[in-house]
Every structure is written in C-alpha cells, then in structure tokens.
Amino acid sequence: MIKHVPYASVERDRTLISSIGIDMKGLAYEAVSVIPDSMPLEDFSTAVVPVTSGKGVTPGFTESVCSILQHLGMKSFITQRTDIAGLSDALAAKADIVFMADDAEFIALNTHTSTFSDNTSSTALGYFTALKIAANGLQGKEVLLIGAGRVGDKMADMLEAEEAKVTITDIDPLKSRALQKKHIDFKVCDDLEKSVRNSTLILNASPGKIPGDWINKGTIVSSPGMPYSFDEEGLKKMKILIHDPLQIGVSVMAVWSASLSLYEPPIPIESPVCAEVIL
What we know:
The two termini are 32 Å apart. The chain is an alpha/beta fold. The chain is 38% helix and 17% strand. Strand 10 (220-222), helix 9 (232-237) and strand 11 (240-242) form a beta-alpha-beta unit.
C-alpha cells in the first residue's frame, strides 16, 4: 500500500473533495484549527530521516512521506544518512520540521520550538475531523468507535469533547472497559457484528475485517485502520468511506507541527528536490 502513495495523493484529494468537500491540505488545516493564509506551508522546509532501528526502514516509507509533504506544498527532502547521522544532516540543512519514525513512534519535530506532533494523535484528529465534517457535526449523534488502542484512545477523547453518544467495541473486552473508565458516559458492546449493524456513523481504529453484510446502507465510515477492513459489498452500502494508508495522518502531522511556529514564522528558503541531500 505505501509504495503507491507517491502516485495517489492527487486521487486522494479528488476522493476527499467528492465525499466531504475538502482536500487533504484543507482537512489538515481544519483539524488543527489554523487559517491557511496565516501559515502557508510553502514557507516550511521539511526533512525525512530514514531510521534503521528495530525492524529497519520500511521500503518506500520515507519516499512516500516526502511525496505527501511536497504535495502539500512544503519543501521536502530525504537525508542521505540514517538515524542520528540523518538527524544531524537535517539540522545542518536548517530544516524547519524533521519527520522520523521507528517501530514505536512517528513524529514531526519542529526545530524552532523543540516540540513535535506525533502520528498517533494526528491520525486520530484527522479521521475524527473527517467524520465530523461528513456527518455535519457529531454533537448528540450515535458514533461507533471500533478499536480501543492508541488511536482509538485519542479518538475517544475527541468524541467526548464533541459530546457524541459513543459505543466502544474492541476484540479485547478488557481494552474496551479500560477506555470506558476514562469516559463513563460511553457504552461498551463486545459483539462487533451487533455494534456495526446498529451503527451509521463509524470511527474504525482497528485492522479487523468488517463484512459488507454487517454495514447499513448510507453509513459513513472514517477508517485509518490498516490493513484495509472492508469488502465490495460494504463499499456499495456506505454513503462515505474516508480511508488511506498514510496521507491524512502525515498531512495533519505537518500542519500541526508547522503551527507550533506560528509565533515565530520560519524564513522562506529555496526548495530542494525530493531526493537524498548530500552535505
């Protein structure tokens, strides 16, 4: 899935515009609550550092992240060296934001403020915002949250703040109940099929398969879960499906990290190409 990202961003924009009336950049600005004119992404230089620790560099990952950032209008390059050496190259090149990922975390470090956005929070915020736009608001509406892991936990916070009526389901009942302890007004249902059959607004933060037979006609689904969860029958029944392998999460990360510099805008610089930088 990731290897196709550099060629798919334009199509992702078309799909988002047709389904919720906004492209990836617009969705990211909306999610972070920033006015586009107050923070042009073209003013930011970004570096993507390959990281080899743990399971190593995922093939195509750094190229995909770099491509997404360029699609947003940011200046972006991949460092020639990896890990700490790559970070030092990014800092030497005066990148405003440095993207790095290992097995545990994926962050966008703002070098001006020494603060960062992370992919878990950014993905949750992006897909929550997309569902909110698609549903014309979530306040008082029934929402099914599938998955009580890291992304689901962040989504739960956002749904509570939005005053949605939430049902949580997870393959591990202990996770559902642990999340409910933080959100006492949420319901829990341990039967995934029953939960899906009773829902028309779904935030899916799970990689589990959801058969099309369970989906109600006209359902709106916002689903960052990987691998892909739905079949053709489900797609035909849905009114809207918001899903991609990487773009929405990275877009929100980029805008979120850039927004940390609003009080000290970076100086515009020339744009390097999306290739390895040699210092």
